Amino acid sequence: MSLHVVVGFGPAGAATARLLAGQGHEVRVITRAGRSPEPGIEHVALDASDGERLAEAARGAVALYGCAAPPYHQWAGAWPALAGALCAAAERSGAVLVMLGNLYGYGPVSGRMTEDLPPAATGLKGRVRAAAWEQALELHEQGRIRAVEVRASDFFGPGVTEGGHLAGRVVPRVLRGKSVSSLGDPDAPHSWTYVPDVAGALVELAGEERAWGRAWHVPTAPARSTRQMVELMAAEAGTGPVAVRALPPAVLTLAGLFSPLLRELKEIRYQFDEPFVVDSSAYESRFTLRPTPLDTQIKATVDWWRSR
Length: 308
Hints:
Blueprint: E1 3-7, H1 11-22, E2 26-31, E3 41-45, H2 51-57, E4 63-66, H3 75-93, E5 96-101, H4 124-141, E6 147-151, E7 154-156, H5 171-175, E8 180-182, E9 192-194, H6 195-206, E10 215-217, H7 226-237, E11 244-246, H8 249-256, H9 260-264, H10 270-273, H11 281-284, H12 294-306
Parallel strand pairs: 1-2, 1-4, 2-3, 4-5, 5-6, 6-10, 7-9, 8-11
């Protein structure tokens, strides 16, 4: 089978690498620290922002998956170098560059988000992410690389821990029947993208030439509010009704004095104060993957957290 190189081994990178290995492909994962090998997956330690070394690691690969992300508070300084290295490695190796993106680049949106929205981010992180894709797209249009971006809403599901809004700060409390705090309005509709579906979309579009040269939204289940998602998890866990309260802005500001992650969340609070709904119909009308049924997502997530 073919060689696939996955940069990053967070929830999406790990799910992508394991999906590819399960399909019988040769998989090489790039992280700073490396890891012990696992069946079908070679782990290599190197700095992915070093384009020359990354290109060497990607030699012979059919696809290069950009699933890494710098620490949240370092995005402004670190993303340009990482994006540049991914593009350079794709150009030198000839591998299709499959970039995992998010929805930050659109900025505040009124209505459903579709891929044809222009980049209008008001925050630094959104502008940085939009610029990363624009760089890859320009090289694609010049014929120097082949590239596609796969955009997801907030990650949810097995393997998503401290970085998710329905993860480490929420699910363990739900399992104990304790109240949880929500960033923004807990009743605002919000799209949650299931991590196995993220991996499925990355792998599917890597092999679909007609998908290259544009961005696509990962197939995502209909939007549910934070409160609704917590209620579904509590019902699955059998822990009864769980109170969901909005986190006051003043509390977030105070907590940000001690936590770089919480401090950075102020920039994206708008995503939780109003409806934040992704439209994945363009993908679903052209390709095979469909969102995993929500009840399956909920059960798998609760089971995973219980097994930890």
